[in-house]
Amino acid sequence: MIEAIKNWKLHILVLIFVIVAEWIGAFSFPIGPGKVVLLPMLYALIMGIFSGPKFLKLANHKDMIDAGSLIGVTLMLLMAKYGTTVGPNIPMILRTSPALILQEFGNLGTVIIGVPVAVYLGLRRETIGAAHSIAREPNVALIGDIYGLDTPEGQGVMGVYICGTVFGTIFFGLMATFTAALGIFHPLALAMASGVGSASMMTASVGALSAMFPEIADKIQALGAASNMLSGLDGVYMSLWMALPMTEWLYRKFYKMKYGTYPSQSAVREG
C-alpha cells in the first residue's frame, strides 16, 4: 500500500485521465422514450484499460497492481460520501426495506441464466464457481472455503471475478442508462437493483441514474448505497443456502442434457 501511494507515475496518469474525462463531460443521446447518458467515469475506465501493458504500455504490471491496491481506499471515501445521503433518507429506506432485502432473490436469476450458458460453452465444474453469483470478494471467499481456489470451482469464480473487475463497471453504467431509457422501471427501483455487493459497479450505475434524474439524485444514491450494504450482508447466506445448491443441481441436469450422462462422482470429488 505504501509503495502504491508513492507511485507518482500512477498518480499523474490518473490525474490526466480524470482531466480528459471531465473535459469530455457527460454525453447523452436519445433512445426510445428516454436517453442514454455516458459519464466521465466510463471514459476514465476505458483510458485506464488502454494504458495497460497489453495496449499502449503507459503503465506496467507493477503499476496495475499498485492501482488495484488503492481501489479499496478510494471506494471507502466514496462510500463515506454516499453515507451522507443515507441519513436524510432514512424514512424512505425503512419503507422500502422489505424490497431491499427480498431483492437478493434476484441473484438466483444469475444461476438460472449462467449455468446453461456455461455448460453449453463447455465449462465443467468451473460452472459452479462462475455461475452461482456475481462473484465479488465474499463469493470468492465462499468458494475458496468450500472447494478451494485451486480447484475448477475456484478457477470459475476467479475468472468471473476478474472479468467483473475489468468490465463490470462499464457494463453496469451502460445497462443502467439503457434500462432507464426504456421507461419500464422506476429509477428508484433501478437504484435498488444497482446494489449487488460491488461498490464500483453500484457507483457506475447510480452515477448514470443520478445524471438522468437529477431531481431525485439524492434518493437514488441513498437507495443504491443501502442496497449495496444489505447485499454484502445477506448475499453470502443467499449464496450458501440457496444459490450454490441450486447451481449444483442445475449443473447436473444440463450436463446430462449435453453429454447424455451425469458428471462422474470422481469428478465431483476432485472438484
TrEMBL record:
Keyword Nucleotide-binding (UniProt): no
A Pfam family per the record: DUF3100
Keywords associated with the record: Membrane, Transmembrane, Transmembrane helix
Transmembrane segments: 12-31, 37-56, 68-85, 105-123, 160-185, 191-213, 225-244
Species this protein is from: Acetomicrobium mobile (strain ATCC BAA-54 / DSM 13181 / JCM 12221 / NGA) (Anaerobaculum mobile)
Protein name: DUF3100 domain-containing protein
